[in-house]
């Protein structure tokens, strides 16, 4: 059946951002997700946040708690509150970004959304479909919480060490480059965007990667040179089956006498990023890059001083993170495969 969004959804604009509070209980949503926290809210969950302004207009986020939505986004609810999560998934099939107007500052307005039609299932099936897709997303969120907790513990175990050594005693730099003409048909690309988007390499056609990359042939730690104040440090516990490539924006660190998780725990200490940030202060943001030799000279906590039990725990936690991230890739793939045919009614529960 085909319906107009105006018949199913209620929309209203958000408001100017409130005063931020680092420990505030309410997430503040802009056009592309959470941008901070506040002590007050202007929308009660469950609801959908739709990006309204800028390059991210048309993005959708589901919130099951109370939040503050800024004027760069729209607050959206189903007229039947039980269907709100279903419509979060249904909106993902509408290609909302293609309905924006304006060239300088793209804009998605309520009138445009109200007039959109969507092919969808009868009301009786919507809650069950949302339950299935939501269960997959809930498991992804639970896995990410496990990863966050495990990585916090890894850093905390190493924080107890008081002895320091130069990073060059724990790792060597790998610099083997490979040109696009030598890429396999399919490659796993360890890029900065891939790190930001869940910490999993992007499996893409080799022909789509246009610049030389580092070739990864063994587990390693990737340390981003760009903007060290925002650490992007990748614990590559295991390599994918595809040809593994890493952006030249990373320093590729191969561990010496320890495993990658112990090495990651040493370089992920907050003091490392803080010192590196101080060394690039005064440089404009787009040029804040650390030099590889400077990184290798950095004093880091000597993880070789840990007990065998502590090292084994760090190894286990690193493998746990790797497994949960791989699980999330599979879950997201299943969700993305099921979503369009379930929403349209092509596939029935």
UniProtKB/TrEMBL annotation:
The UniProt record lists the keyword Transmembrane: no
InterPro entries: Restrct_endonuc_typeI_TRD, Restrct_endonuc_typeI_TRD_sf
UniProt keyword annotation of Transmembrane present: no
Domain Type I restriction modification DNA specificity: 2-140
Biological process per Gene Ontology, one example term: DNA restriction-modification system
Disordered, as annotated region: 1-23
Keyword terms, alphabetized: DNA-binding, Restriction system
Pfam families: Methylase_S (PF01420)
One example GO MF annotation: DNA binding
Comp. bias (Basic and acidic residues): 1-13
Family per record: Belongs to the type-I restriction system S methylase family.
Protein known as: Type I restriction/modification system specificity determinant HsdS
Organism for this UniProt entry: Mycobacterium bourgelatii
Origin organism lineage: Bacteria, Bacillati, Actinomycetota, Actinomycetes, Mycobacteriales
């Amino acid at each position: 059946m085909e319906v107009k969004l105006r018949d199913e959804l209620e929309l209203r604009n958000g408001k100017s951002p409130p005063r931020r509070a680092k420990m505030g209980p309410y997430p503040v949503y802009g056009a592309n997700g959470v941008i901070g926290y506040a002590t007050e809210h202007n929308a009660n969950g469950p609801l959908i946040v739709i990006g309204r302004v800028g390059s991210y207009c048309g993005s959708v986020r589901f919130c099951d708690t109370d939040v503050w939505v800024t004027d760069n986004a729209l607050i959206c609810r189903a007229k039947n509150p039980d269907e709100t999560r279903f419509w979060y998934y249904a909106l993902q099939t509408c290609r909302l970004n293609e309905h924006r107007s304006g060239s300088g500052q793209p804009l998605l307005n309520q009138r445009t959304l109200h007039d959109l039609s969507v092919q969808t299932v009868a009301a009786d099936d919507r809650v069950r479909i949302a339950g299935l897709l939501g269960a997959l997303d809930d498991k992804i969120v639970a896995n990410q919480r496990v990863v966050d907790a495990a990585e916090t513990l890894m850093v905390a175990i190493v924080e107890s060490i008081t002895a320091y050594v130069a990073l060059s005693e724990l790792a060597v730099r790998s610099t083997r480059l490979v040109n696009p003409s030598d890429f396999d048909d399919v490659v796993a690309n360890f890029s900065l965007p891939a790190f930001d988007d869940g910490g999993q390499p992007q499996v893409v056609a080799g022909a789509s990667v246009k610049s030389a990359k580092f070739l990864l042939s063994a587990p390693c730690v990737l340390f981003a040179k760009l903007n060290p104040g925002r650490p992007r440090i990748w614990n590559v516990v295991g390599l994918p089956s595809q040809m593994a490539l890493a952006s030249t924006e990373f320093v590729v660190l191969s561990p010496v006498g320890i495993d990658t998780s112990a090495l990651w725990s040493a370089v992920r200490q907050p003091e490392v990023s803080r010192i590196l940030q101080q060394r690039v202060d005064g440089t404009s943001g787009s040029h804040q890059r650390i030099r590889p030799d400077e990184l290798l000279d950095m004093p880091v906590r000597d993880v070789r001083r840990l007990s065998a039990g502590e090292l084994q725990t760090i190894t286990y936690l690193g493998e746990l993170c790797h497994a949960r991230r791989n699980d999330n890739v599979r879950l997201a793939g299943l969700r993305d495969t099921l979503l369009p045919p379930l929403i349209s009614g092509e596939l029935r529960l």
